[in-house]
Amino acid sequence: MTWRGVIEQYRSRLDVDDGTHIVTLGEGNTPLLHSQRLSEKTGLEVYLKYEGTNPTGSFKDRGMTMAITKAAASGAEAVVCASTGNTSASAAAYAARAGMLCVVLIPSGNVASGKLAQALVHGAKVVEIKGNFDQAFEITRKLEGPYPVVVVNSTNPYRLEGQKTGAFEICDRLERAPDYHLIPVGNAGNITSYWRGYREYKADGLIGSLPQMFGFQAQGSAPIVLGYPVESPKTIATAIRIGRPASWEGANNAASESGGQICSVSDRSILEAYRLLAFEGVFAELASSAPVAGLLQLSAEGRLEKGKTAVCVLTGHGLKDPSWAISGAPRPELVEANIDTVARAFGF
Ligand code: F0G
Predict the structure, then answer these.
(1) What is the position in ligand 1's atom list of the atom closest to the CA of 188?
(2) Pocket residues for ligand 1 (CB within 6 Å)?
(3) How far apart are the CA of 316 and the centre of ligand 1, in A?
(4) Between the CA of residue 264 and those of 66, 216, 222, 226, what are the distances in Å?
(5) Global confidence as pTM
(6) What is the structure's pLDDT at 197?
(7) Between 20 and 30 A from 292 (CA), which of 55, 147, 216, 282?
(8) Which atom of ligand 1 is nearest to the CA of 316?
(9) Where does CATH 3.40.50.1100 sit in the chain?
(10) pLDDT tens digits for range 55-100
(11) By C-alpha distance, which of 224, 204, 213 is closest to 312?
């Protein structure tokens, strides 16, 4: 069967009427890659759910097809979001597809260039604030009501509905749920969605057991781990630089109900995981490397049982922010254009 996006694929599990025009870019159906190196390192069977292959390069597309489909069906002409970058890239693309206006509020200086480029190329109206994501989000929420816009952040209920399809795809592929599910946590919508998806499959008898859910925040931006909001969150993983997550409770519930935990990982370990993934051919952005850093941390602490199956969700593509890849590597050598100098440069 040809793939026509997550709404068509999981229509019976999503609240979309038959006559509704579906706004899709063919999102979902992302690879679940077995990782030889991480499996060897940890003694687990490790899989990577590579969400970077979605149309705009992140998992946000799963929820955005739902949010924009519903917004368009309701007659809305404009959508708005606050974003650390990926939500705005996705909202801009899906709004363009639907012929709607998209307005975006981002924290100045803390959005990767690829993500900003996406919002701009799709014609979104982008405004930067002299503040962080949490402040942008607070303002955005207040716009709905007095102004004719629909908020498409993950507080939009359709976003979380769409994102649960990630859990369905994992179970469909493995023909069961993994034992451990590891995922980055920023605004905490995605972990909430995945947990909902797994529980739905379990309730319908499609899987026999549920995974333990482990969410990972960056150490300088770890409000859920600390138990209180962080006023000035800091991390190199700008996608999850969030001090006051909207779905805080959802994340806590996922962790506690499943016997998992919300943990933090250092920026240094995120960067190491980023490089490790890249050396296995998988280019994921820094935030996406947090669950891999977390996997290695929990495994080193002996908290994961060997032989079990673990899935790490790699939420966004590495090309979103090439600066980290380039800064960590030697500059290419510039030589004369002839075979001898080229061969010498290669060390042949
Ligand atoms: N990974 C990436 C690449 C993200 O862009 C985000 C969130 C997350 C993980 C965390 O997901 O918020 O559901 O816990 N990015 C949002 C944005 C905040 O604006 O693009 P979450």
Answers:
(1) 14
(2) 58, 83-87, 154, 184-190, 239-240, 285, 287-288, 315-316
(3) 9
(4) 31, 5, 6, 9
(5) 0.97
(6) 98
(7) 55
(8) 3
(9) 6-58+159-327, 60-155
(10) 999 999 999 999 999 999 999 999 999 999 999 999 999 999 999 9
(11) 213
The domain made up of 60-155 has a fold known as Rossmann fold (3.40.50)
Residue 332 has pLDDT above 90, yes or no: yes
pLDDT digits (tens, 9 = 90+) for 149-202: 999 999 999 999 999 999 999 999 999 999 999 999 999 999 999 999 999 999
- Choosing among 2.40.50.90, 3.40.50.2000, 3.40.50.1100, 3.90.550.10, the CATH entry for 6-58+159-327 is 3.40.50.1100
Q: What's the Cα-to-Cα distance from 317 to each of 115, 156, 258, 336, rounded to whole Å?
A: 10, 24, 28, 34
Q: How confident is the model at residue 329 (pLDDT cuts 50, 70, 90)?
A: confident
Residues 325-342, buried b or exposed e (16+ Cβ, 10 A)?
Answer: beeeeeeeeeeeeeeeee
Helix-then-strand count for the chain, H and E = 15, 10
Using the mean position of ligand 1's atoms as its centre, give its distance from the Cα of residue 315 in Å.
Answer: 8
Instruction: Specify the residue with its C-alpha closest to ligand 1, atom 6.
Output: 239
β-strand 101-107 against 125-129: which pairing, if any? parallel
Distance 200 CA to ligand 1 centre (A): 23
